[in-house]
Amino acid sequence: MSDQIIPTHTCDYDVAIIGLGPTGATLSNLLAIQGLRVLVLERDKDIFALPRAVHFDGECMRVFQTIGIADALLPNLFVGPGMKFVNAQGKLLIDWQRPTCIGPHGWCASYKFHQPDLENALRERLARQSNVDVRLRHEVFALDETADGVQLRFEDTSRGKLGRATARYVVGCDGARSIARRFMGTELTDLKSHERWVVVDTMLNAPRPDLGDFSIQYCDPARPTTYTRGPGNRRRWEIMVMPGDDAAQLSSADWLWDKLARWISPADARLERSAVYTFHSVVANGWRRGRLLLAGDAAHQTPPFMGQGMAAGIRDASNLAWKLGAVLRGEASDALLDTYESERSPHVREFIETAVQLGSVIQTTHPELANARDCEMAEAIRKFVTPQPKLGPGEWMDDASGTAGHIAPQPRLNDGRLLDDVAGYRFALVALPAVLEACPNLPDEAARADVALFVGEASIREWLASIGAVAVLVRPDRYVFGVAHSVHAVDQLLEQAVLHQRTENA
Ligand SMILES: Cc1cc2nc3c(=O)[nH]c(=O)nc-3n(C[C@H](O)[C@H](O)[C@H](O)COP(=O)(O)OP(=O)(O)OC[C@H]3O[C@@H](n4cnc5c(N)ncnc54)[C@H](O)[C@@H]3O)c2cc1C
């Protein structure tokens, strides 16, 4: 993508981001690599200290690759083999296997990580960007839309000093209790799952291979519990709060050790941190109002049974960043920003609804219902496969192969490099050699449209053959914009993707 920005003298920044959690940090990095002027206002001084995400998928790793932190993250990741759901007697109910080899994204399907490590890596990367102004201990308390931007009012809580700044767009990455969402007047659709759980992170004194590498959902109606391993000696347990529990005791060391006794004792590990959470499942209706947008937990929340809450925020950031860049550079009309919610909302909803369904298996606490569930599931072990939803309608052209709207694979090229590294942060056209023979001007056309062109790579030929295509146009967020099934359709594809936006905006 071109990094030439249309001057915006009337606003201090192109984009202001409220909140530097994983969503805000990912979005600011993706905006920074496009040369945009970004302000980040974060209420807290330090990274959130309580236990949260432990898992992300290969698609997230690809976003981290684009940002340039994937290699730095790798040594502190553990490749997860999957998750098993067992009943009170230990019988397998659901088997969710994740391949541990490199998959279609060019990365593994499931990584276990320590959320503060990721957030530190994102912040360190951001600190190297001269076009990003990160202000910690700055709490936003008001947003006022102006003719060509938004004015943010905030307090520098380290000095009690009030301040203002203006930006052409503001993105609320400010978590579940988002102030941006309040100012937008956006309401939430409740997907009806709100259970209380205690989450405890432990550090083993020595490896304990007997605990296993699979995550286990113990679907025991007496006390549903989740075990999951992290990198190194980190182990997590999530323990459902039951009606008879003494609220004052939850999270006390005695209560936790009592619940962990089946697996470990104080001689085996130390308690690192714990928290009591209510796991919500909600989706916001209205992710954009004018120049205000929402991303991450501000726009949706899911129970953690699939490990997809943060991942959804990373996908939001990836979907939104290139669109904001195109609009701010004057390459696209701001209607492109409406495709953000229309594409992302149904996608995230599918993950949340699936997590709620899995949650209803785990969170069955009535003994008779649990018995009925076990009998029903005794017929056959259910093999669970990770959902691969398509984007909702938006900036992509549907086609008969069903490929467009899905994320593209990331093969290695003939020289061993990964496709995204060579493509950079822009559209990429991957094509069969026959396309170049028929359209010798294609390299010039692609260069004019700032589209990376890949022709004749063996791994790409294989993918195109599998979907009966001669060429595929991939967006900067690596989702497929459109597919050409004949040589003649290629020009049209390029035109639709890039020239259409420019003409529309002229
Ligand atoms: C127990 C548990 C387990 C989980 N496991 C997983 C998992 O395995 N995989 C996964 O993908 N997800 C998981 N999640 C979900 C994941 O942790 C969250 O979805 C993710 O952290 C949300 O990131 P965010 O950046 O959108 O919001 P947050 O991390 O909440 O960040 C919001 C930021 O905004 C700041 N802020 C708020 N208001 C203001 C304001 N007015 N002014 C300035 N700053 C403000 C806050 O201080 C905060 O830093 C889990 C969650 C829980 C609770």
TrEMBL record:
Keywords: Monooxygenase, Oxidoreductase. One of its GO terms (molecular function) is 3-(3-hydroxyphenyl)propionate hydroxylase activity. The keyword Oxidoreductase applies. InterPro entries: FAD-bd (IPR002938), FAD/NAD-bd_sf (IPR036188), PheA/TfdB_FAD_monoxygenase (IPR050631). Coiled coil: none annotated. One of its GO terms (biological process) is 3-(3-hydroxy)phenylpropionate catabolic process. Pfam families: FAD_binding_3. Residues 12-353 form the FAD-binding domain. The keyword Translocase does not apply. This is FAD-binding monooxygenase. It comes from Caballeronia arvi. The lineage of its organism: Bacteria, Pseudomonadati, Pseudomonadota, Betaproteobacteria, Burkholderiales.
